UniProtKB/TrEMBL annotation:
SUPFAM superfamilies referenced in this protein's UniProt entry, alphabetically: Nucleotide-diphospho-sugar transferases
Pfam families assigned to the protein according to its UniProt record, in alphabetical order: Glyco_transf_34
Organism encoding this protein: Glonium stellatum
Keywords, sorted A to Z: Glycosyltransferase, Transferase
Similarity comment text for this entry: Belongs to the glycosyltransferase 34 family.
Keyword Transferase: yes
Gene Ontology MF, one: glycosyltransferase activity
GO biological process: protein N-linked glycosylation
GO cellular component: Golgi membrane
Name of the protein described by the UniProt record: Glycosyltransferase family 34 protein
Length: 245
């Protein structure tokens, strides 16, 4: 409708991505169209190994900050390539700190944790100077702290930094299921972090048979079943976010 977008998505998909990854990217299209989200997709490598990810996020942050204030995006949502949108009727805005409450004005990053600690496969980050400082630090971490073991590379660097006294006050840990839910097993009781009907998306980190698992959930997402794609007011998000914030 011509409204200025507040939130943009950022992801990477290059090399020879599987068909499952391309299909996963397409599940974002309806979500983006309904909510006016521009999607930034990098199709080639910028740096070695996984370090293209923080570099690309940093480049988008700087690109937005170079615009006049009234034309900038306010938040970016990073999504790994193995994320599948299950309910396009959940706007990212519904998960962010309330705009009308100044108590949360200094929250610039929302993160979620799993059994390994931080999982940075999906996270919203505010477009501002603080975020530029964070992603500049992530990108340079391995050179300035070469003695520090980075088990999960950029993710570990990010984990160390958001615990630093400079960054920690501006980071909030949210329930994992809000925007980084993992798959659940059939006919078993779901854990708090596992996806259920009405949830925004499902993510597949560390899954051995990832393509096969993704194809199962892609088939579900592509059916646009009404018991999965429900209006926000019929999901658990309004009550959960109200209680949290």
């Amino acid at each position: 409708l011509g409204a200025r977008p507040r939130i943009g998505k950022v992801t990477i998909l290059f090399g020879t991505p599987s068909q499952a990854y391309e299909r996963a990217l397409r599940t974002h299209e309806l979500h983006d169209r309904l909510n006016n989200y521009p999607l930034h997709v990098l199709r080639y490598s910028l740096l070695d190994d996984v370090w293209t990810k923080p570099a690309y996020i940093l480049s988008i942050l700087l690109r937005e900050l170079a615009k006049p204030k009234g034309e900038r995006l306010e938040w970016l949502l990073w999504v790994d390539g193995d994320t599948i949108i299950l309910n396009p009727y959940v706007p990212i805005e519904s998960l962010l700190p309330p705009e009308d409450d100044p108590e949360w004005d200094d929250v610039h990053l929302l993160v979620s944790h799993d059994w390994n600690g931080l999982n940075n496969g999906v996270f919203p980050v505010r477009v501002n100077i603080w975020s530029v400082e964070l992603f500049s630090a992530i990108l340079s971490f391995r050179f300035y702290r070469p003695e520090q073991h980075l088990q999960f590379r950029d993710q570990s660097a990010m984990d160390f930094l958001i615990q630093d006294e400079h960054f920690a006050p501006n980071v909030i840990r949210t329930p994992q299921r809000w925007f980084n839910a993992y798959q659940g097993e059939h006919n078993e009781t779901l854990e708090a972090f596992q996806v259920r009907r009405g949830d925004l998306l499902v993510h597949f980190p560390g899954v051995g048979d990832r393509d096969e698992r993704m194809r199962f959930w892609l088939s579900r997402a592509e059916k646009h079943a009404p018991d999965w794609e429900v209006e926000l007011k019929h999901t658990s998000y309004p009550e959960e976010t109200r209680d949290f914030w």
